[in-house]
Amino acid sequence: MKYNIIHRPSFSLVEVELDAGERIKAEPGAMVSMSDNIQVQTDTGGVFKALGRVVGGERFFMNTFYADGGPGTIELAPPYTGDIEALEVEGTIYAQSGSYLASALDIEIETKFGGFKTFFAREGLFLLKLTGYDPLFLSSFGGIYKRRVENKKFVIDTGHIVAFTDGLDFNVRRIGGLKSTIFGGEGLVAEFNGNGTVYVQTRSVDSFINWLRPYLPRQSE
């Protein structure tokens, strides 16, 4: 599988070249274009796995694309403006709901209970646990960059987390006091510690919605 990410970082799209018989699975609606020999199969991948993905904020069904009779190309993109990060997974990655775009067929997708420390976070109680040794494509709102954490704390707004590698632990807390949380424009933060990498998006969906809300038409009473 070969791939190339273009139009970064605001309107990213990934071009994936598949050899004959090679497969890639992707979120429904992610396909932008494809060769005429690319075929698609839609299924759940198992009812219990599908239900687990739904709990984690993903779709019940998933599309699998494969090249039939020769090599082919497919282009994939997320539904919102932002970047795409390609990870050559060697073990386990934990991702927030909505950041999964596509992956090689062998990447296992599970839902992991995040513990009650995530109860008040926007992302909720569950994370996606992505395990394997193949390409994985994650999407972000805004640009995406990596922050290496090595035996020191790293504090990040929960709305800016895309994913993080195994070997990191975190706690969710308020930033400052109650007044800062309510009136300071800052909400909850995740405090990471351990050894690993955090993938950060430069924009927050929550912040964008709050900025946009005053401009939306109001329903007449």
UniProtKB/TrEMBL annotation:
It holds the Pfam family AIM24. It comes from the Archaea. InterPro entries: AIM24, AIM24_sf, Trp_RNA-bd_attenuator-like_dom. This is TIGR00266 family protein. It comes from Methanothermobacter tenebrarum.
